[in-house]
Structure formats: structure tokens, C-alpha cells
Write a structure and sequence with these properties.
By secondary structure, this protein is of the alpha/beta class. It has 14 helices and 19 strands.
Length: about 475
Amino acid sequence: MIMNDDTQHNYWLSQVAPHPRRPRLEGDIKADVAIVGAGFTGLWCAYYLKRHDPALDIAIIEAERVGHGASGRNGGWVIGNLAGLSRLLEGLPLAQRRECCGLVSDNVDELGHVLDQEAIQADYHKGGAIYAAARYPDQEAIQRDYLEHLLALGHRETDCQWLDATALSERLRIENGYGGIFHRQVATVNPARLVTGLGGVVERLGVTIYEQTRATHVAEGEVSAYGGRITAARVVCATEGYAAQFHDWRKFIIPVQSAIIATEPLDESHWRQIGLAERPAFADASRIITYGQRTADGRIVFGARGTYRMGARPQNHYAIGAKAIRQRHALLCSLFPSLKDVRITHGWGGSLGLSRRFRPHAIYDRHSGLATAGGYAGEGVAASHLFGRTIADLLLERETPFTAMPWAHDDTSPAQLLKRWEPEPLRWAAAQAITLSYAGEEALMKHQRPLPLIKPALTRLNDVFASIIE
């Protein structure tokens, strides 16, 4: 059963009906496809494999339970964009960029259609997203630049529009709202309900899921685990930021922590002050990377980027400390001062996966039969659907619009495509320097202090250390 400790901390899990644990893998078995990781990527890959070829024998092993990693604990944004997409589209003609951006944007509706078709009750709601310029004037320039970036990349003007202060206040009454971007192609979900529902769907399609079965080694033709082994011609490593135990895979994806809080249900007087009547997701232009949504039961779920842990260790437990909760509550109150006395009922954390140079990828090495996808940089709810679908097409050697996209790589390996992360303690030192420089830049903008010598210096410091991970 889902542990009380999990639901106590993770609001999403508290909305999921308890279910029995699935069996462990015991002994050696054979399958056509073995998938490591029962999160979004692994489950979507299995779903599309079964939809295209129902006869396939597919086995999934999961170290804990379905959705234990990032898939069951993220911010619940289904984003019609990809972190790192600009790098993938670099140098391509505008028509090709628009085709790619269109596919990425429409993925939001495609995911919603599948949830509808498969009767997965995940609180899917397409209300768009508002990227607000708030808290200090410099954020307006940041968001206007971001809008220009989205349109230059190839996104449709009908999907990405500027809201002036008046138009913003009609949708979101945020403190010092100077304006912002409305991105139409964004939805929100309860990710824990989505991943558990998807797990049930793939099982009904004939996929076998083994829980509490930690993989120890992934290699050509087999997956070894505590308790047994799976022999399969095709193996998919779908662990993303939770690949720390795999020496050959953790070189390319590292986990970065994020922390989230949930408020108690808000009354109507609060909602009149805040807005969000159409339930758009919301964020501001903070370097801290904020993200929030109004839930189906009238709460606010709000998160912000956390820290990098020495040694690239992912966060397996849910609980976060009182300090992390207070920091996020204070940040939420800086956007909505009326929430200062609202009770915080849940606080939890997890890990997102970052690839070197922020390169999202779906890779299949035909020679070895190994495949992987990841590098979502915190935007994995929608990206995992897109990339799981892409991996399925690559494994089945189907030529589709997905396999023609720049994130799809056939007949190659991660080592050939992805750049390795630097060894410790260089990664940790760079992460600390970036965090400190961001905090300094935030402080200057918050107090609206020009300090012409310091501000450019901080910007340059950001560029220097960011180059280590870009």
C-alpha cells in the first residue's frame, strides 16, 4: 500500500486511492522489451509499443513503486515547449523550426486526448500558463525577451501573447503585476494520478510491472536486478534523474533538487484577490524558477528550484525541511501577500534530470538494442509523453514525424551524442557559484538599485559558471 509518510508530505499522492504493491521480480525471465523505470517515460514507451504491436512481451522493473521518482512529485505542468529546444533547432530553417514547435505545442492536446480515451482521471485542465513580470520592474524586460525568443524559435503567435498590466490583472492578480506572457498550450494535472492511472492502463494492455525491483546493471541484451534478471533484445533505460546507480548512464544526466508546497483549500475571498478563475498555471521571471497552479480542489501548489547535492545524489524521500517550506511560502506571499496566514499542509521534494548543455534526447542504439530518453530539465510531464512515443517508434523502426525530430537519434549511443558532466567537486562548486550569483542579481533587482558596476559583474559571473554546464 502507499505509505502514510508519502501522502503526509506529497499532496499529489494524498489524492490517489491506495493500491496494493505489485510483485517483485524473482528469478530470470525473458521479454521482447525490458524497461527500467516505471515513471512517465517508461510507461508511455510501453503504452505506445503495445498500441502499435500488441503481441510484444514487455516487462518493466521499478526500484520502488510506479511513479516514485519525478513523475509522481513534480509541479504538474504539461508544457507545450521543451527546455533546451533552442539548442536542438539551432541553424534549422524557420519552416522546420515551426514544424517542430507545432508538434511540441500540439503534444499538450495529444496527451489530454489519450487521458480522455483511456479514462485516466488525472485532473487534466488546459488553462494555459501565465509567465508574469512581477515583484520588480526588471522582470518585464526579462519576460518580453522570452516572448521574442519563443516566437523566433517558431512558436505560433496565437499561442504566445503579451498581456499588459490590465490584461494580466483580469487573469491573475499578482503583486506589482507589470505584464506577462500568456502561453495557451499549457495544461495542468495531478502527476501522481496520471502516472498511477497510466500504470494501470499498460497492465491492462498486457505489460508486466515489477515493483521493489532495483536494477543493478543495464547492458546489451539484459537487465540485472536484485532478485533476478531480464533477458531482452531491446532495453530501455527510463530513469532520467534517478540513474545514479548506473555508472554508464549517470555520466550524462545529473539530478537537481526541487521543492514544492501545497496550501490548504482557499476560500472565495482569497480567490477574488488572486484571480486564476480559469486556472492557468503561473510563474514569475525569477532566477529561482517558480511554478504554481490552482488545483482541482482549490489549493495552490507552488514550487521553486532547490539545490544540487554533492555527488549527484537524487532525492528518494519525499519530506523537505521546515526551512525549505518557509522559503517557498515567503516567495509565494511575495506574489500574493494575502496568503501570509494561509496554512501550508504539504511540503515535498524530488529530483529533475539535467543533461550537459540542456539537451533533451531520445536515443536508440540499434547495434546494442539499448535506448534511453531524458534531459527534460523539469519539464518532463509533456516531454516524457513525446519522448516515450518517440522511443517506441524508434524501437519498432517506424518512420514518423516523431522520429524525424531533432531530439530523435537512431543507430547511436548516449556516449556518442551526449557530453559527459565534469567530475566532482567542479560540478558542485559551479552550482554553488551560480546559486549565489542568482541570489545577488535577485537582490539588486528587488531593491531596484542600478549599481552599474556590480550588476554587469554578476551577469558575467552567471555566464562564466553557466558555461560549465552549458
